[in-house]
Design brief:
The structure is a homodimer of 461-residue chains.
Chain A lengths: L2 H12 L10 H18 L2 H12 L7 H16 L3 E14 L4 E7 L2 E4 L2 E3 L10 E8 L4 H5 L1 H4 L3 E4 L10 H20 L5 E5 L25 E4 L1 H13 L4 E6 L2 E15 L4 E11 L9 H20 L6 E8 L7 H12 L3 E7 L7 E7 L2 H10 L10 E4 L15 E7 L4 H4 L12 H21 L4
Parallel strand pairs in A: 5-6, 6-7, 7-8, 11-12, 11-13, 13-16, 14-15
Antiparallel strand pairs in A: 1-10, 2-3, 2-9, 4-8, 5-9, 10-12, 14-16
Helix pairs in contact in A: 2-13, 3-9, 9-13
Chain lengths: 461, 461
């Protein structure tokens, strides 16, 4: 840590701040009620999400649509009278799915089509890949099966998300390695392609895409997600005929990185203008569906936080920064660039909140924070219970804000109800119609309320 | 209170029971985890709901479909090896919507159709009613406007549900009188029909029906719900042309009451077989949609509670009674009959739980109970927090179980997340597709867990 930052940190720690046990509960209750009245009575986030989903649509990093979304976000934040609205340049990957993706096998002389979609970052098949299929449940199975039986085949990773976990995010985390690392792990044993069971609890015909990456030292083989219904069909067909031939065609292409941008906007703080509370989500989405829950919801909620605070003439003590990050889905260059620029410019980030788990009814917040900050939040949190915000826990905050992590910043993730998220996540079903207006608004209200509490009480300091 | 009941009550109050502060948290945690594993891993409630919604469908009291549903429920409970599965006869009203319902007005020479649906219990129009429209916000407005201006007109009750209330059930309660009493109140001033803005927060084109009733001493005039989109259109048209003519046609008919039945099934208690814990919902629904959330969800969850406890070989101390009530929607004769029979036979109801607020993620429970019972529940409730069950409050339990209310019974309503319920409630959108499997299962798991805790700890006693 350099001298300037050390000094700033010391000032921080000595900083005069209201004690939590000096909480003015009545003032807090009144202001928080006003926040919810504003968002439920005059909310604009659902309409803003409609524009983002229907007029712009899916917006993968490197796409023209993401370029449009950046201009839309910038313009909307200016319309809401934010201070200092700027674009922060970010280099992002560019990858396209191309215009076809097909897969089928022949069983009992019938051609059975699978609904598949390329994983983000996959190479194309360069013609069709036709091969036998070997089904596995986990990466470790590959070693046990061995190169002889895998070579020349398509590896089919078919481990379902664990239905017994209450938080579906944990179930996703437990099945994620098949998608993220499966291709390179299978390629080590000579596989020519991979199919990955879609990461969803839903039994349906929609494949769910998502990021994968290749190791440098193994061949790059094509990787696709297969819908859960088609994964079951393939599983049963393989029991009947283990040597069936599977054909897959993917038309994806990778390009050179291109420059796009995070969008940053502020409400300047009156007392600690050089200390920032970030509120954000990510503007990019996958290229199928509309990126409504992931993460259009987080974007319009973050913008709504600014709109609400402006509408209530709230003058924050700290500078509130709304950040629309880019490239969360396949690189996190938006989050990394934001944090690197903050470090380079010695910006003090007091706290950051991210909404990137869907626009569902808010249940609480998860904290990556000091013990003090977390304890202080817990002492003040009951004021949010009337609004259905009951949960608090230590744990993951958000991909975009995570690069800001250090010993003193408070990183917070909004926890919406998790049950339906993976029904939509990274699939064609992630559309505006599946986002409930009130659930989205309540999420924005809970974020604005938390910003208010962080700003008033400097929880961690 | 008669002598026998007094004696029973005294025995009750002296009853030896484990103290809550003797809670075996580890055993409770283990058993509750087993409940959730069973419902999330092997749950059958979502498939059962599919049958009820798709093979039987809407099932209004007095309909053949409700007759089928009664047989289906009885048969399913027997299949799950319930004890003492019986039908309890209940007299219910019979009313039919008929085969047409039309409404329109002419504005700027264009015919504008409204999507309406008769309120349950309404008389038909006996030909078309054509009249001017007077728009009001509340019942009390009628007196201020006066008979002269209302006579011969259609009264249009257009008060929206209050969006600022966090619990949508409270917003429903605040707008309900327009639907339930509007027709007779308007008829007192000579109105010839009523239109009621649909009780939903959604801005859509689906009218939402529901119960209404007539006073004996005023003329019975037809009453229909109008979709929120069409209510707005009519509101704006009336501003432009206050004397526009509105035409409505309803083809409903009322018949003599018919006999149908509650279905009752048990798991006999080992220690207190003569004390009952009721778990239920209502089997009847409105005649549009599929009655999926209202209240197919509550029915299949109640049956699932029995299936879970059987699957886990749980031997309850008290007798658990699953009750599939009929006629909640338009008379509550199922609930009233059940309570009257219980009273006649001096049955001791220790507690009753109802699920009738939709198959959404469970958030907690509301209690109509003694202070002791409620305090005891609060002390034991943290064991449910891992499953997202955080809320407890005093308040409304459920329509079907309410007639059991006395000084000692503990009546409990499941509180699911309320935000989406009225998007579907009493409309064509209340279909199986709109019920999420995991949310439904978590509700059943939370009910089974509460039954276990009530049974183990005799909370109120």
């Amino acid at each position: 840590m350099d001298a300037i930052k050390k000094t700033i940190l010391i000032i921080f720690m000595l900083g005069v701040s209201p004690l939590i046990n000096g909480q003015d509960e009545s003032a807090d209750s009144t202001f928080i009620r006003a926040i919810y009245d504003e968002v439920l009575g005059n909310g604009e986030c659902h309409e803003n999400l409609h524009y983002l989903c229907k007029e712009i649509g899916a917006r993968l990093s490197g796409s023209e649509e993401l370029g449009e979304a950046i201009l839309w976000g910038e313009s909307l934040l200016k319309k809401y009278n934010a201070d200092n609205v700027v674009q922060q340049p970010v280099m992002v990957p560019k990858w396209t799915r191309g215009n076809y993706e097909n897969a089928y096998f022949v069983s009992n002389k019938n051609m059975v089509r699978s609904r598949i979609t390329a994983l983000g970052g996959s190479v194309g098949t360069n013609g069709a890949v036709e091969a036998e299929v070997i089904e596995v449940k986990k990466l470790e199975d590959l070693e046990a099966i061995g190169k002889e039986k895998i070579e020349g085949k398509i590896v089919f990773f078919n481990r379902a998300m664990d239905p017994l976990l209450i938080n579906t995010g944990n179930a996703y985390g437990g099945a994620y390695d098949q998608r993220s690392k499966g291709a390179s792990e299978a390629a080590k044993y000579g596989a020519v392609g991979t199919l990955v069971r879609s990461l969803t609890h839903a039994q349906d015909t929609f494949p769910h895409t998502g990021a994968m990456s290749y190791l440098d030292d193994v061949p790059r083989i094509p990787a696709a997600a297969i819908s859960t219904v088609d994964a079951s069909a393939l599983h049963h067909a393989l029991i009947e005929n283990p040597s069936l031939k599977y054909t897959m065609e993917l038309s994806c292409t990778s390009y050179e990185d291109v420059e796009q941008a995070n969008v940053i906007a502020e409400i300047t703080g009156s007392e600690f203008p050089d200390e920032y509370i970030v509120v954000g989500g990510h503007l990019d989405s996958w290229d199928i569906g509309e990126g409504a829950h992931d993460d259009g919801a987080g974007i319009v909620q973050s913008i709504e936080v600014l709109r609400i605070l402006k509408a209530l003439n709230y003058q924050p003590r700290h500078t509130i920064r709304i950040v629309l990050f880019v490239n969360e889905e396949n690189g996190n260059n938006g989050g990394k660039t934001y944090a690197a620029e903050a470090e380079k410019n010695n910006l003090i980030h007091f706290a950051a909140i991210e909404s990137d788990a869907g626009g569902f009814s808010p249940r609480g917040f998860s904290f990556e924070a000091t013990d003090d900050a977390y304890t202080n939040y817990k002492s003040i949190a009951p004021v949010l219970e009337d609004y259905g915000v009951h949960m608090s826990r230590r744990g993951w905050s958000g991909v975009d804000i995570r690069p800001l992590k250090n010993d003193y910043v408070t990183l917070i993730g909004l926890i919406p109800d998790t049950q339906r998220y993976f029904d939509f996540h990274h699939s064609k079903r992630d559309t505006w119609e599946n986002v409930n207006k009130r659930e989205l608004e309540l999420g924005a209200g809970s974020m604005a309320s938390l910003v208010y509490l962080l700003d008033q009480y400097r929880l961690g300091k």
